[in-house]
């Protein structure tokens, strides 16, 4: 009967175990498990440091086709696969991202998975959780306040107030703050200038927290943030403002991974949540590397489709953290194949094998792309009740032509029992020793060539175009020593091209680079190829108008 | 040797017990104690509701003379007295306010008490603690975002954008945000208007959280916030914007009191922290009323000196929550008496009985004022090592002439052993049945008369002056049904007058009312008599420049 309940109803009915018992399974002593309520905990930095000589488990990436309005179920499959691996006797953990608070008040909040494959407690994970994002907001805005304060007291560093690139952040959808003038009110308040707020997940502090190995590395990276430039265009760093120490103090607890559980009581780290366009879109390195010490299998996911998410996971996170993924799962659905085959959302009901076959081109491109990183691939067909056998078979047949396998998974309805086949296949791939992971491009490649490599190899673009000023900026950064950084592409998630309406597997398109940004602390160059919104707005009727506590003290309207 | 250690060194050496053990002493079952780490916990709303039929303990207010740069030690005495009452066999609890995060990065952070009379863990209490202030920031700013969003989508409520009184908040000292223009950037972003940020503790949401009885009352009060006016000056409420439900959801956990412990392992609630000028400056009603159910003695404090803090505690918090204090302790020091007697801070060393005697007038005024509320008073002389016997005796002799007793307390150096005499005296007063608590003025008195009553009766002012527009505004609120609200005076804390340099016990001065503000959700009228800064700035060399983690992972520079 699970099909007739909503995700939140299923999640509320979960038979949760005390978080101490979940930690015990992983061998975490009580004193190293820092509880936040009865069902959430942080893992102490001290415990993490003590695991460093242990062998690593196998790392499995769950990625997906380009998202469609039909829904793919990447997180659901990540959770389901973790449960499935535990079910077949493996010691497995899940590592996923934290949700952002602000967007929940615009549209309904996101579940962590769905159906019988969820991480709980869902409400807390969509609200304040363990306070990580609030800590990031505080650390980010402390630096902002210290920059304006520096100018106020005489501007010894000679900051060019027109060239301050460090804005402020808030975990709220508030378009009124996108573009503002601060420091009004005369002598007591400062020197007026134009700036704005981004949403917290867009903060470079978020990306840094998710890439830092430990607190020392965190402070080092925070110190390296470029906050402004002088009139002569030389950069001014966070450490020039002397904010890096206090920011590290504010982030001390936020750096510790959060332990929660799946509905089947298996352990999950939910930690960090950087934007998947102007940042790399993966959960924290600390969570992933710690999980690899504690479990034999770690299932993690990357944001958006494989063209953006998996590429960044491999080229940024794995490269920086020295991770070597052992297998990748690409999630697809029959419905999404049909949409890629040209069918509209309202017409997805009737069987349409031809549309499925046509839409498979998108899936095929992703399978081939992931293989370019030397990682063996399996396709998970996330089952929907309307799928017909012939449609499912069409996907399987197509994937077989690529030398890979597509496996039907029913974890949404059945939990781990519905995903055993995929779990066995993942174990087979991971144990086979097939994986020969290598990033797409070497550190030494010039920055513009890196962009071209991603665009041509992954997106199958014909060319990359950019204004002279963009190319000059890239060369300047190379001169300043940033040439070895990887590229973080900000592109629409809906297409291999920069046109969100171009589904399937387009080729030969042009990728126009509008802007490039340096994230010197996080350690990547952001390349922007379209409109990127870093502060969302609320819709005409925001979901917050309906959110409330009911008579039982439960939250209504959030899901 | 304790005298030679800093507060933070003493606090770090505290022999803390697991918070579950502290809760057990109060009879809180494990499932109702929501842990935040090993030494902090929230008490479930469900448990609190179940205590409603239990008898109340005795309520003791700790207040003080007007603060001087010499330091008085109000919180230290609150903590010491709580420990002292436990030492003499009473079941006692402490209720104090939470610290604000932002100011710690300007000046050094505040301890929760001092010496051997502290509440721990000090670091966490000065950083994110259990996230209450972050939740308040989120709830406040959600309402702000929804107001601008309402205008953006057509302004059905006909909000006059020039008359939006609801600003935004951040828990940061950031003067750049005091006065800003938002909604720049054209059609996609909104209608430009001038506004600003206050620090989170100045938010009306903070005052509301601290005065609400339960979640239902909280939502009711949030809904009653006046956020803006129309062109015809009719008010627009938070509930018109439909933000009250979602704000309540965001504040659900923040409404639960935080349990920590003193260094002597006695229970303390640290919950809420409204400004003591534009708000009432007391810890939450929920914490105090819950503590009264769990302990036989509850020791709490109010902000600033008794002229502001005790008056608001009695006239706002006690009036609204139906609390009946049984005794009050007024904290004084020999050094502060000398400063009130005209001695400069650098000259406080040598014995000066005459200056002590002269300065006692300030103390005497406070003793007499507190008695006006029908609450028996004892004076605590918080001992400093430089105090001479003759100076202490001078204070005792003076207080005896007022029909009260002054007791020397050495809790800073000795903990509870140094404050037994005061504890016995407090028990004697509380058990005596002397207390006949009544607020200073009735609800029905006209608003301007209430202001005059406070100014003349408590400050000994000669007159209250105000522009015609101020008097008209008060009359308008009376017409709108706000006439029964109590007054929340925003006045300098350093003097009975509005001149911060006028120490001692001045009389006949003029109190000029600059501005009045309606806090309809909190339920009081704010009367501003001087410059009130609701968003602090950072100093030339902010303490944040020196804050960092040391090799042991301890926080340096915060204290």
Describe the protein in words.
Chains A, B: Keywords: ATP-binding, Ligase, Nucleotide-binding, One-carbon metabolism. Chains A, B: It comes from Hoeflea alexandrii. Chains A, B: Its EC number is 6.3.4.3. Chains A, B: It catalyses: (6S)-5,6,7,8-tetrahydrofolate + formate + ATP = (6R)-10-formyltetrahydrofolate + ADP + phosphate. Chains A, B: ATP binds at residues 68-75. Two copies of one chain form a homodimer. Chain A is α/β, with parallel strands linked by helices and 559 residues long. Helix content of chain A is 34%, strand content 18%. Chain A contains 19 helices and 25 strands. In chain A, strands 1, 2, 3, 4, 5, 6, 13, 14, 15, 16, 17 and 18 form a twelve-stranded mixed sheet that branches. Chain A has a three-stranded mixed sheet with strand order 20-23-22. In chain A, helix 4 (74-87) crosses helix 17. The longest helix of chain A is centred in the N-terminal third of the chain and has 21 residues, at 132-152. The radius of gyration of chain A is 23 Å and the shape is globular. The two termini of chain A are 20 Å apart. The model of chain A has no long low-confidence stretch (mean pLDDT 96). The interface between A and B is large, with 72 and 72 residues.
């Amino acid at each position: 009967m699970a099909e007739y309940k909503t995700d939140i109803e299923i999640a509320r009915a979960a038979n949760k175990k005390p978080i101490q018992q979940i930690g015990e399974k992983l061998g975490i002593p009580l004193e190293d498990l820092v509880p936040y309520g009865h069902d959430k905990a942080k893992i102490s930095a001290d415990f993490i440091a003590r695991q460093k000589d242990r062998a690593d488990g196998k790392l499995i990436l769950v990625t997906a086709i380009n998202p469609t309005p039909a829904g793919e179920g990447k997180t659901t499959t990540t959770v389901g696969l973790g449960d499935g691996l535990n079910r077949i006797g493996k010691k497995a953990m899940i590592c996923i991202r934290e949700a952002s608070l602000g967007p929940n008040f615009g549209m309904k909040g996101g579940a962590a998975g769905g159906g019988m494959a969820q991480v709980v407690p869902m409400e807390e994970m969509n609200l304040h959780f363990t306070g990580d994002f609030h800590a990031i907001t505080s650390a980010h805005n402390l630096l902002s306040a210290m920059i304006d304060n520096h100018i106020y007291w005489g501007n010894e560093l000679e900051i060019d107030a027109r060239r301050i690139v460090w804005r402020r952040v808030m975990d709220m959808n508030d378009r009124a703050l996108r573009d503002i003038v601060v420091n009004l009110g005369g002598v007591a308040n400062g020197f007026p200038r134009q700036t704005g707020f981004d949403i917290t997940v867009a903060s470079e502090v978020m990306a840094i927290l998710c890439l830092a190995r430990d607190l020392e590395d965190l402070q080092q990276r925070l110190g390296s943030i470029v906050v402004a430039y002088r009139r002569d265009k030389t950069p001014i760093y966070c450490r020039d403002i002397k904010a890096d120490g206090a920011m590290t103090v504010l982030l001390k607890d936020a750096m510790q991974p959060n332990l929660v559980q799946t509905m089947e009581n298996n352990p999950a780290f939910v930690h960090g949540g950087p934007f998947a366009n102007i940042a790399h879109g993966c959960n924290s390195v600390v969570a992933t590397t710690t999980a690899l010490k504690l479990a034999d299998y770690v299932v993690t996911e990357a944001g958006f489709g494989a063209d953006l998410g998996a590429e960044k996971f491999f080229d940024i996170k794995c490269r920086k953290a020295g991770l070597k993924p052992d297998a990748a799962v690409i999630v697809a659905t029959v419905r999404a194949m049909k949409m890629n085959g040209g069918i509209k959302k309202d017409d997805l009901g009737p069987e349409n094998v031809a549309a499925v076959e046509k839409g498979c081109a998108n899936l095929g491109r992703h399978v081939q792309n992931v293989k370019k990183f030397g990682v063996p691939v399996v396709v998970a067909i996330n089952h929907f009740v309307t799928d017909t056998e012939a449609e499912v078979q069409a996907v399987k047949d197509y994937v077989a032509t690529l030398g890979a396998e597509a496996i039907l998974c029913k974890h949404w309805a059945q939990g781990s029992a519905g995903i055993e086949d995929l779990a066995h296949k993942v174990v087979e791939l991971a144990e086979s020793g097939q994986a020969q992971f290598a990033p797409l491009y070497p550190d030494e490649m010039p920055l513009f060539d890196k962009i071209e490599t991603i665009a041509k190899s992954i997106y199958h673009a014909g060319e990359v175009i950019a204004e002279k000023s963009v190319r000059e900026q890239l060369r300047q950064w190379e001169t300043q020593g940033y040439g070895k950084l990887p590229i973080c592409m900000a592109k629409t998630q809906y297409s291999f091209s920069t046109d969100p309406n171009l589904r399937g597997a387009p080729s030969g398109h042009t990728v126009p680079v509008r802007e490039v940004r340096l994230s010197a602390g996080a350690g990547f160059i952001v390349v922007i190829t379209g409109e990127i919104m870093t502060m969302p707005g609320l819709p005409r009727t925001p979901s917050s108008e309906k959110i409330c506590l009911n008579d039982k003290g439960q939250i209504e309207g959030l899901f």
